[in-house]
Design goal:
Helix content is 35%, strand content 26%. With 411 residues, the protein is α+β, with helices and mostly antiparallel strands. The protein has two domains: 3-181, 3-Layer(aba) Sandwich (Thermophilic metalloprotease-like), CATH 3.40.1830; 206-230 and 250-409, no CATH class. The strands form five sheets. An eight-stranded antiparallel beta sheet has the order 15-14-11-6-5-19-20-21, with helices on one face. It has a five-stranded antiparallel beta sheet with strand order 7-10-16-17-18, covered by helices on one side. A hairpin with a 2-residue loop joins β20 and β21. α1 (3-18) crosses α2 and α8 crosses α9. The chain starts with a helix and ends with a strand. It binds zinc ion (ZN) (2 copies). One zinc ion binds next to β16. The site of one zinc ion (ZN) has 7 residues, from β16.
């Protein structure tokens, strides 16, 4: 692949995405299959002045072996060191920041017992919650970005040999992440400014609810949580540092009210969950809760997902993404939420982001729940945007505003 782009990409996600500050501890999660890219990010981190760069190598095949052979009870019993290895750096006086590099095989865990996978990942999430709160609340800068993995590339381009598929996926990632502009920093500055203007307008309208419709049958009214704010593009961590949590990101998103969602929603892209694909799915909401659901493929997995815990059947996010987003325009299904969620409007089953509530980072989960923000061990984005999606916003004063027409921003 193009080495210039590779270096530009690594520099961009470390120095602008995470925005590593001098003396910070910089944690990198990197697939073991892509050491060169991990090393490039380590170098960029030290160039930015990191005190220490800590790399956690991750391995899909190893995860599969554990899931296949170890007993569920043993997998659910986590050791303190598995939490301390994150918290030690989060609690360091110099603070920390995180880069998570994904190169997931979308079907790494295909065929395994969905119930077991779900219960083990729930146990892990609950155990690691003291650490995940740091990123969920933007207490530290964090960024999720992706690089190709052979199994993933072949899934995206099934007609190409492995090498060519990898090359093509690299090129595509460079394109949709604006690296091929040759100056991703400037391209992203412009993109961030445009996105900020949109969320400012949405916030100025003081919306009570949004109404989404499309010809595929989606017709849902999503009430917003109390003091909900629209966010997008960049975030600001507790230490005042601006960062981009997802690369790429095309969305402007808000916190739904957990009890005020009514109507039916049809998925418009397959959804990769726990290394398996849910396709042709729909859900019906009543008073915020999924009361009926189905899928053409892996319906049982969708049922597992929605019953992960008490509030997994409610939503924590509504995000607007225009059909003209570079990811959607590429016409490629990535089988990867980071990309696919930026191709279409989406909702997320499970927890909402406290940062979508004004002053929310300072509130407890119980206080946030009172404002209508959902809480759950999961946050799973599922795509519902269609080429003809229409979104109308209704203000607290009853005034109506056209937000989306034919899948595009209408203001
Ligand atoms: Zn989102
Ligand atoms: Zn989300």
């Amino acid at each position: 692949m193009n080495q210039t782009y590779l270096q530009l990409y690594a520099d961009f996600i470390v120095k602008v995405g995470v925005n590593v500050q001098p003396r910070q501890n910089f944690i990198i999660r990197c697939p073991v299959s892509m050491p060169d890219f991990g090393h490039a990010c380590v170098r960029a981190g030290y160039e930015a002045g990191a005190k220490r760069v800590i790399v956690r190598w991750e391995d899909d095949a190893l995860t599969r072996l554990h899931m296949e052979h170890a007993a569920e009870a043993d997998l659910c019993e986590l050791k303190p060191s598995e939490l301390r290895c994150w918290l030690d750096y989060a609690e360091d006086p110099d603070g920390c920041c995180l880069l998570a590099i994904h190169a997931d095989d979308p079907e790494a865990l295909a065929g395994l017992d969905a119930g077991k996978l779900n219960r083990v990942s729930l146990a892990r999430r609950n155990f690691l919650k003291p650490w995940s709160e740091y990123t969920m609340n933007d207490r530290v800068q964090w960024c999720v970005a992706a690089i190709p993995a052979p199994a993933w590339a072949v899934k995206v381009f099934p007609d190409l040999p492995k090498e060519e598929a990898m090359e093509k996926l690299w090129q595509l990632i460079f394109e949709v992440c604006r690296v091929t502009t040759g100056d991703p920093v400037s391209a992203w500055k412009e993109h961030v400014a445009k996105t900020k203007a949109r969320k400012d307008q949405l916030n100025a309208w003081q919306l009570d609810r949004v109404h989404l419709t499309s010809a595929n049958g989606t017709d849902v009214v999503i009430g917003l949580a109390e003091d909900a704010t629209w966010e997008g593009a960049s975030s600001v961590a507790e230490n005042g540092t601006e960062f981009i949590a997802n690369v790429p990101t095309e969305e402007v998103f808000c916190a739904p009210h957990r009890d005020r969602v009514d109507g039916v929603v049809y998925g418009t892209k397959p959804y990769a969950y726990n290394g398996q694909l849910i396709e042709g799915w729909h859900v019906t909401f009543q008073n915020g809760k999924v009361v009926e659901h189905g899928a053409e493929k892996n319906a049982a997995l969708l049922a597992e997902l929605l019953t992960t815990d008490e509030n997994a059947c409610r939503i924590g996010e509504i995000a607007l993404v225009p059909a003209s987003s570079p990811i959607n325009r590429s016409g490629v299904l990535f089988y990867n939420t980071l990309f696919d969620e930026n191709a279409a409007c989406h909702i997320a089953f499970g927890a909402g982001y406290p940062t979508n509530i004004r002053g929310g980072a300072a509130l407890t989960r119980a206080q946030l729940m009172e404002k209508g923000l959902n809480d759950s061990a999961i946050h799973e984005d599922v795509m519902i945007g269609a080429p003809d999606t229409r979104v109308e916003g209704i203000g607290k004063n009853g005034e109506s505003h056209l937000i989306f027409a034919d899948g595009e921003w209408a203001f």
